[in-house]
Automatic annotation (TrEMBL):
The keyword Nucleotide-binding does not apply. One of its GO terms (molecular function) is glycosyltransferase activity. InterPro entries: Glyco_trans_1. Pfam families: Glyco_trans_1_4, Glycos_transf_1. The lineage of its organism: Bacteria, Bacillati, Cyanobacteriota, Cyanophyceae, Nostocales. Keywords: Transferase. One of its GO terms (biological process) is lipopolysaccharide biosynthetic process. This is Glycosyltransferase family 4 protein. Residues 639-777 form the Glycosyl transferase family domain. It comes from the Bacteria.
Amino acid sequence: MTQKQIFRVTVLDMQPIDPPIGGGRLRLLGLYHGMGECLPTTYIGSYDWEGEKYRHHRLSKTLEEIDIPLSEQHFVECAKLQSRLGGKTIIDSCFNLLGHHSSEFVETAKSKVAESDIVIFSHPWVYPLVKDSLRHPSQLVVYDSQNVEGLLRTSLLDDGGLGTEIAQNVVSIEYALCHNCDLILACSQEDRELFNKLYNIPFSKIAIVPNGVFTDKIPYVSGSQKKIAKKKLNLGDTPMAIFMGSSYLPNIEAARFIIDELAPALPNIHFAICGGVCDQFSNGELQQRNITNVILTGFLKESEKLNYLAASDLAINPMFSGSGTNIKMFDFMAAGLPVISTPIGARGILQLKNPTIHICNENEFINGIQKVLQDHDYAKSLSQSARNLVEKKYSWEKISSNLGMLLCKKYLQQKKYISSLHQNVNNQYNSHQLNELSNQENLVESSGKSQKIYIVSTYPPEHCGIASYGSQLVAYLVSQGHQVTTVSVNLQANADIKLNLGGGINPIYLLFFRWKCDQLIINYHRSFFFKSNRDTIITNIVFLLLYLIFWGKISIICHEAELLPKKGLLIKRLYFLLEKLRWLASPKVFFHTKSELIDCASHYGLQETNRLFLLGHGNHFQKHTLLEQSSARTSLQLSKIKENTLVFLCIGFVQHSKGFDRVVDVFNRLSLIKNTHLYVVGSIRVETEADRNYMETLKEKAHGSEYITIIEKFLSDEEFDLWISASDYVVCPYRIIWSSSVLARAKLYQKRCIVSSVGGLAEQITDQDFVFGTDIELESIISKIIYKLG
């Protein structure tokens, strides 16, 4: 079982997404609009033309677009280079050479890159400008290649002079990105093979993520609908072939072929050329050459494009250069048009047993058009096969979702926690002091390869902080490439193996895993295994047996070490001695605070402490929401507070040991409180009379106060983090505890905290936080914060 995590994604390019016209923008919207709620995505782009303004808007539930205009000087310098190349478009190819003129774009991109978990470069253009801000390898860096740009730009620009220099620049930056990224997304198998051949990139690093189409937005057109569409365009019964494309050299070559070759040879067919490619031609040229069967539509709105698709009888794609896949092909296929294409135009599109595309070379194109128009059965077969194929294989909805799963998987494999997670703080114990050593100890013995690990713990839906901790530990180990099997300590949790390990001899069941796993990790809380005093004898003996048989392959993560009394009745002293013996025999034990480690070692006389280690509480935690404070408050519908209200938060399971009443009492004693509110949010973990009475007492204390709200509710992980994000101060007024997951999550969101001096809480905070010992000190701290005296 893995805990849901949130991974922040930034996608970078130098064009806008909206409106999604042209293959590049359509791919951006298609790929990143619906990768899943765990992958909130920010797109940083610009405009490759002058006169636009800054724009920040949302394109889908999980995709936002930020466009920062390039500077005037950027366009001036680009125009100088362009004039030396006969007007060829190079604003993308030389973007890294001129990007320093657009500092606002670069700084915004760097800022987003630095705070992201996954960084995706759509095209290689922005990579050189922000590469120094990457936090590799803690981030997943992805190259979304829409073409093999080095090859394409060489074919477009290579002139032996400046064009060659720019093409070489493209080859250089694409080569660097390919070798420095963790994953390459290729549009087709052909591109995948080119990356391997040209740049020596291993196939294992390249995933094919094809282009696609929003199938729900392009209807399959019937015969009657086609007649209506033709009537709108005043086409009569004349057959029409459609071609679409942006102002991009391979598209310009295709349009020129239509005008020069196809239209004169087939005068009884209309040829509609649609999109930005029309800017390279004029109706005056057509009239001068007496070409009357070519329609230059120019840029089309989405509704206009759909009408032209509906009015067409077939689609053509005579491409002779370029790489990647042509997104226009999927529009044609989704509309149910029989498609005629050159092999390059159909690159990367799956061909089934029944043909979906009529593929022919330049010399066969005219015959191909005639065959499709004359053979109605063949045309119908192409039409139906094409529509079926895009629905099954090339739907953007499916492609985006699948990409999200791929990125999550790769990120978890990439993430490295070990160096920050585990510090061995002691190997020598002397006079109740532990001397810190420089070496580190890993939770799992490193062997350089994947291991089979069994983790014994509570798991959701169990209402238990250790259950959430266990799920995140599983996610961490999975990210290291290990094979993890979850084993629950009771029968209520969602785990791969459910056991009842509580009491008596029951933990003996763990022996069955000795020869099935490489490592056994136990999230240990005494209450999981010792249900009564009489269990102390037999259960300790069972653990001693486990330690002996699993020796070297078992780790204990201690959650709240229980220090049994040393003195008292004979039976009490026997219990203590057995507990001490178990601690002495323990293999490798991790504690969350140094205080807990020292006290446990001192209490049980553990002279040999080279098996005791510190495991930072929450170092492997991940945020479950990325909403900032104001958005979190809106999401939680905190109607009682104003925007500038100072929010104090007590959160978690409600019981006397948590001490939430201490904070409620402070707020009840304070007067003249302005723009301040205390929220106590949580539920009773296990319904008992004592805890129910405590909850009702809290509600009574808060009743009638306009500054205190008690919310009794079990919180999901996302809701829990929303509350923390919405707060200003997180208060942990605990009466007894060693370490706190609440405190660890608060620090994850960089919240200031007020904590009691018990256990090791003071080890989890920073100099910006507050520690109190008595209720008077707590009141003084809160008063100073509210009245801005501290």
